[in-house]
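Quick log. Single chain, no ligands specified.
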Amino acid sequence: MKRKIILLLVMVVITTVIFGCKKATPTIKPPKVDDIADNYRTFYQIFVGSFSDSNNDGIGDLRGIINRFDYLNDGDVNSGTDLGVQGIWLSPIFDSPSYHKYDANDYFKIDWRFGTEEELKELIALCKERNVKLILDLAINHTSASHEWFLKFKEARMNGDVTNKYYDYYSCVKTEEKVGGVAYQKIAGVDCWYECNFSGSMPELNFDNSEVREEMLNVAKYYIDLGIDGFRFDAVKYIYYGNADKSVEFWKWYMEELYKVKPDIYCVGECWSGDTEIFSFYEAMNCFNFAMSQAEGVIAKAAKGSTISNYTGYITSLQRNTRAKNPDSMLMPFLSNHDMDRIAGAFVNENYMRMAANLYLLSPGSPVIYYGEEIGMRGSRGSENTDANRRLAMLWGDGDMVKNPTGSTYPDSKQINTTVAEQLKDENSLYIYYGKLISIRHKYPAIARGDYSAANCENKLGGFVITYQNEKLLLLHNTSTEEISYDLSNCGALAAYKDFSLCDSIGVGTAKLEGQKLTLGAQTSVIIKIK
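-> predicted structure:
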């Protein structure tokens, strides 16, 4: 009997060694099909401090967003007097020492300049009332150097107190352990270099510490409990900078935990990198598609008249590659954001801006509009070294006191000479155009949700056959500055189809379809139903 007990104990020990120490790979539990469909939205990014000021202190705030909600979504899809966005992404709103708030002091406290938690709850309720998703920008890879955690971490390190809970809260190494390409700063008096890839005032958290993981999971859960629909995660590859595989595994775990709390959560990651690295993060969540953005991106080049097949080929391959990583993935196209020069400055006139808007808002997935893009606002770094010039005050033109952020130097002479108030009254304005374009996008669910295959006609005339459920649409763009007449039967991608009917067009020109002969105006897009 004694021998049997000993053998049993040995087996238990062996089993524990073999299986107990093995790190399980998380299995992502994606949302249900109905939830996925509901997350195909047109989003609007708001840099909170620059959007709308409700109390005349010069700083945008949550109350300002509430006051401007009718501008974004008035609750009537047929009104024609709002922008018609279905989602809002707020830049960080947590207590922070900076104007941009990407360095939180306290994740559970709304920065006093922006308002209160009660006002956030009011905004959440308004979003739910009008079926608008609200997501928060959440930077979890680093905190502010004045965060309570970091102050306790430094104290523990300086005292050599390995029993202190915060001793391993942040990523740090000794002198001989420093890795090239990673930024560090030394803690005075001890051989401890903490990782700080963005700034010495933004120390990187240590996600090998399970307590840190739980801390940041609790932050997300707190705001989900308040009613937030999801998050934009800042700098996802910096969780383990230089080790994408390990960062992806973290995010897979993190998203699995969030799906348990909210199955229809809407999350998007910022991996500012090449497509290959971005695709790896699609295993965990949707990501922004950076190659589509900026002055030399796929969209802007096509809008300025480069060969249309470069654009159509990119979109179709992007959809194919992301779905290979996750069958339920969505593309996240955008033209510019708070870290980039505003896209309007890339074009010689507004007609090119309209064409660019067509190319990305009439594309699959969930596109994101950067506040002010819809009125053609400009802003760039130029020779200055500040992103404040890309985050300038919204041009309301109705007495709103919101001011440019601290450090901005962008000259007024380079800014547009129109405002929201003026564009609201002008039926030919860029703002009204954006509203019509978004309305067309929402009119055809296939645009956001469908399977895309390229249909290239001429050098600057092309687009896609879009298949969704039992429907087929032909979406074509004329990116040239001349009207084009084209017989659709000459396009190899359309050889199997003979029956076409014109549904909608939007752009500088008009569209006409006679049988299979299409006449499409300059810088104009058309939606055709294939029977």
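The mean pLDDT is 93.
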